[in-house]
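Summary of Year 1 activities. Much of the first year was spent building the evaluation harness for sequence design. The harness presents a backbone, in tokenized form, and records the residue chosen at every position. We chose the following record to illustrate the format because it has been used consistently in internal testing since the harness was completed.
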């Protein structure tokens, strides 16, 4: 089945802000081929950052803000939101609005990013063009009204440059980290500058690119390839490769069957590390009202009543 692009996209008009940002960051990524900017410390920072900042999207933007699958103190919620902002995937309210629209219209023509248009469209093409519905004021009011009641999220919408304080703030932090780390082993200034630049290249730029494509693969690959546990009326699939990259999100058919659950693990081998981390937060007293999968809710409710 093939879909046209959503009607609000027509006539095609480039979203210059998004298109230029995506292009520039990818071009900067090629600087990683320059030996001067390579360091194993930078690579390690990139790998750690992929998980840490990626959870700002997976746990923060997705499971907490979009689906409200658990609760946590506001300062914890805002910390997850800042990690998501640093991943350069737009403001929390806009991300939530788009994803909720995706669930309402999944793989139907109004879906903002269905692969029934094309693979490239679902992966990143949909970001390149203006969709008058996804980021409209009416769309935000309808699909993200709960977030906009919070002054923190409202400030990010009313001040378009507010998020850049977090995004650009990463650069001096990573540079200082590399600069200081170098001085632990050597007092040579050129070496410290080199390691600082390497940490920015790998810890920020390469990490942002990686988290982008990992997140986008849920929209594309997990609606094209894999198996289904449930007939959900759309094309969501459980894709083990995406599940590995996203520490759980690739069990996407399970998620579309039960989007309000904090876990997407419906079989013992469908490992969902993100859910384990949410449960760890619960153990630490930083999360509550964690919603288990639907098939476990009766036993969960009985245990809660007994307690």
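For this record, the design step produced the sequence shown next.
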């Amino acid at each position: 089945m093939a879909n046209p692009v959503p009607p609000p996209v027509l006539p095609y008009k480039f979203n210059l802000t998004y298109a230029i940002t995506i292009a520039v960051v990818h071009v900067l990524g090629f600087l990683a081929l320059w030996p001067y900017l390579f360091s194993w410390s930078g690579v390690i920072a990139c790998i750690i950052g992929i998980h840490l900042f990626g959870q700002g999207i997976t746990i923060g933007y997705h499971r907490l803000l979009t689906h409200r699958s658990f609760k946590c103190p506001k300062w914890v919620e805002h910390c997850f939101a800042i990690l998501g902002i640093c991943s350069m995937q737009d403001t929390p309210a806009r991300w939530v609005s788009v994803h909720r629209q995706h669930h309402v219209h999944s793989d139907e023509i109004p879906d903002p990013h269905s692969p029934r248009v094309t693979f490239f469209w679902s992966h990143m093409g949909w970001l390149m063009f203006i969709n008058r519905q996804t980021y409209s004021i009416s769309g935000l009011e309808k699909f993200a009204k709960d977030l906009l009641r919070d002054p923190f999220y409202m400030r990010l919408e009313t001040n378009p440059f507010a998020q850049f304080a977090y995004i650009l703030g990463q650069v001096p932090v990573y540079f200082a980290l590399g600069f200081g780390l170098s001085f632990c082993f050597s007092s040579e200034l050129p070496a410290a500058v080199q390691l600082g630049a390497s940490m920015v290249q790998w810890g920020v730029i390469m990490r942002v690119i990686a988290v982008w494509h990992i997140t986008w693969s849920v929209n594309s690959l997990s609606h094209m390839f894999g198996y289904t546990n449930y007939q959900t009326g759309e094309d969501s699939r459980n894709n083990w490769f995406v599940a590995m990259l996203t520490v759980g999100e690739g069990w996407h058919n399970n998620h579309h069957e039960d989007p309000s659950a904090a876990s997407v693990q419906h079989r013992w081998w469908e490992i969902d590390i993100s859910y384990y981390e949410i449960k760890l937060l619960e153990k630490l007293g930083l999360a509550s009202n964690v919603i288990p999968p639907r098939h476990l809710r009766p036993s969960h409710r009985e245990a809660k009543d007994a307690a």
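The chain has 14 helices and no strands. Quantitative recovery figures across the full test set are reported in Table 2.
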